[in-house]
Specification:
Shape: globular
CATH class of the largest domain: Alpha Beta
Biased composition (Pro residues): 285-296
Region (Disordered): 284-313
Order of helices and strands: HHHEEHEHHEHEEEHEHEEHEE
Radius of gyration: 23 Å
Mean pLDDT: 84
Protein name: LysR family transcriptional regulator
Organism: Nonomuraea bangladeshensis
Helix content: 25-40%
Domain HTH lysR-type: 2-59
Number of strands: 12
CATH topology of the largest domain: D-Maltodextrin-Binding Protein, domain 2
Number of helices: 10
Largest sheet: 6 strands, mixed
Strand order of the largest sheet: 4-3-5-10-6-9
Length: 313
C-alpha cells in the first residue's frame, strides 16, 4: 500500500527539484525526506529516483507515480473538504497568502467580514509573490491565496491549483501619454523574477523597445514616490493608483491585471475556502470597467475625468 504522505514528498520533489528544498518546505530534515522516499520505493517495488552523487532525479516510473499521486492527493483533499462540511461551520486556522497590494487594499475588509461571519476561523496572513503560491499550497504552507495575472505574462499556478476569478483592473502608465512616448525614459519595475517585472518588460517589448530599467521596486507606493521624484516611469495597477502623489499623472492603457483566489484542487468545496472567497468578493473595491475604449486617458489620477489620448502604442 502506497503511503499518501510519502506520495506528497515525491510530488514536492518533482516540483522543487532537490531533497533539501523539499525538506525546507515540509520542515523535515533532508535525511528524513530521503528515508521516506526510499521507503516509498520499497512500497512501489520499482526504482523511483536516480541518484548521481548528491543529485537526485525521478525515473520514468517516478514521473508516472507523480501523475497518479496528484490525483490521489486531490481526492483526499476532497474527502477532507466533505468531512469539514459535515462538521458544520468553518473553524480553526486559515492560512492566507496574498501579494502586497491585496494585503493593503483588500484583506483588511475581508478579515473583518470573516471575523463577523465565522468567528471560529483563525485567519493568518503572509505576503507572498504569486510565483511562489503553487509550491506553498502544495506544501501545505497556505490554504488559500490571492494571486494576480497580467497581460503578456502566462499564469503562474500549476495543474495542482484551482483558481476562482475575482476581478480585473486596468493598468496605468505614469507621466506619459503612451508607451511609445516613454521609450527613452528610465524605468522603475519590480524585481527580476516577479510578475510585475515581466509584465512591464514585455509590455515595452510589445510597443517596440527594450526598457532601460534603473530601479527595481516592488511596493507600488514607493514606485509612485520614485516617479514623483523624477526617477523614471512605471506601470501601476488601479488598486495602487487611487491617490498618486503630486507631479504624477496616469494614462490608462489597454492592459489588465486580474486577481484570482487560488487553492489546492480538491478544496473547491471546503467550507473555510468558500468562506474566504466570499469575503474576498465582498471586500473587492470598485474598479472601472477594463474594456474602456482606447483613445481616452485620465488627467491626474485613476479616478479623475477622462480626456482623449494621443496614442495607445
Amino acid at each position: 500500500m502506497l503511503d499518501p504522505r510519502k506520495l506528497h514528498l515525491l510530488r514536492e520533489l518533482a516540483r522543487r527539484g532537490t531533497i533539501a528544498a523539499v525538506a525546507e518546505a515540509v520542515t523535515f530534515t533532508p535525511s528524513a525526506v530521503s528515508q521516506q522516499l526510499s521507503a516509498l520505493e520499497r512500497e512501489a517495488g520499482v526504482p523511483l529516483l536516480e541518484r548521481t552523487g548528491r543529485r537526485v532525479s525521478l525515473t520514468p516510473a517516478g514521473r508516472l507515480l507523480v501523475e497518479h499521486a496528484q490525483a490521489v492527493l486531490e481526492q483526499l483533499d476532497r474527502a477532507s473538504a466533505a468531512l469539514a462540511a459535515v462538521r458544520g461551520g468553518p473553524s480553526g486556522p486559515l492560512r492566507i497568502g496574498a501579494f502586497p497590494t491585496a494585503v493593503r487594499v483588500l484583506l483588511p475588509a475581508a478579515l473583518a467580514a470573516l471575523a463577523a461571519e465565522h468567528p471560529g476561523l483563525e485567519p493568518m496572513v503572509a505576503e507572498i509573490d504569486p510565483a511562489d503560491v503553487s509550491a506553498a499550497l502544495g506544501a501545505g504552507e497556505l490554504d488559500v491565496a490571492l494571486v494576480h495575472e497580467y497581460d503578456f505574462v502566462p499564469p503562474v499556478t500549476d495543474d495542482s491549483v484551482g483558481v476562482e476569478p475575482l476581478f480585473a483592473e486596468p493598468m496605468y502608465l505614469t507621466n506619459h501619454p503612451s508607451l511609445a512616448a516613454a521609450r527613452e525614459e528610465a524605468w522603475i519595475t519590480g524585481k527580476p523574477g516577479t510578475l510585475c517585472h515581466a509584465m512591464a518588460v514585455r509590455a515595452c517589448q510589445a510597443a517596440g523597445f527594450e526598457p532601460r530599467v534603473r530601479h527595481h521596486v516592488d511596493d507600488f507606493d514607493a514606485v509612485l514616490a520614485f516617479v514623483a521624484a523624477g526617477q523614471g516611469v512605471a506601470l501601476v495597477p488601479h488598486l495602487a493608483a487611487a491617490a498618486p502623489p503630486p507631479g504624477v499623472t496616469l494614462t490608462r492603457l489597454p492592459l489588465e491585471r486580474r486577481t484570482l483566489a487560488a487553492f489546492r484542487r480538491g478544496h473547491d468545496d471546503h467550507p473555510a475556502i468558500h468562506a474566504a472567497i466570499t469575503a474576498f468578493r465582498a471586500a473587492t473595491p470598485p474598479c472601472p470597467q477594463p474594456a474602456e475604449p482606447p483613445g481616452q486617458r485620465p488627467r491626474t489620477a485613476a479616478t479623475s475625468a477622462w480626456e482623449p489620448a494621443e496614442s495607445w502604442s
